[in-house]
Amino acid sequence: MTTLHPTSIFTKGEKLSSDYFTGNAFLTSLLARDKNNNFAMGSVTFEPKARTHWHTHPKGQILVVIEGEGLYQEKGQPARSIKKGDVISIPEKVEHWHGASAYNKMIHIAITNYEGEQNVVWLEPVSEADYNAANKK
Fold first, then answer.
1. N or C: which terminus of the chain carries fewer CB neighbours within 10 A?
2. What is the CATH number of the domain that holds 106?
3. Which residues form the Cupin type-2 domain (predicted)?
4. How many other C-beta atoms can be found within 10 angstroms of the C-beta atom of residue 33?
């Protein structure tokens, strides 16, 4: 069964693995890598408190927030609030995480570039203490 958010333009998608995400996050693939495009594009829905683990991208990533409010943090930097209309350009190999805030869902389009066959390197989960601190800012 296809589940649509009442305000979203894309389906909610498939639940993402707890190996790489904390909480309930979902992916709808919008464009797969092919001979013309060396990137993948998807709509990612984060329910409140859901977030990625720390990770990097060998050739960078672009996030376009299309609904809700969330958080983005690079290692060693304070977390920042992100909201509908924000565009985040993440440089290659920068350790970071992103997801929903504690009380709001967030949906973003992720455009992720490839280097060879790889587009992401997954690291450890964001600690509850770090996530809670990010929500207080």
1. N
2. 2.60.120.10
3. 44-100
4. 15
The answer to whether 68 and 82 have CB atoms below 8 angstroms apart is no
- What pTM value is reported for the model? 0.91
Q: Is 119 in contact with 98 (CB distance < 8 Å)?
A: no
* Whole-number Å distance between alpha carbons of 67 and 70: 9
pLDDT tens track for 32-87: 999 999 999 999 999 999 999 999 999 999 999 999 999 999 999 999 999 999 99
Asked if the structure places residue 56 within a domain, the reply is yes
Query: d(Cα 103, Cα 135) in Å, to the nearest integer?
Result: 9
**CA 31 to CA 128: how far, in whole Å?**
33
Q: How many domains does the chain have?
A: 1
Torsion angle (degrees, nearest 10) of CA 5, 14, 86, 64: -120
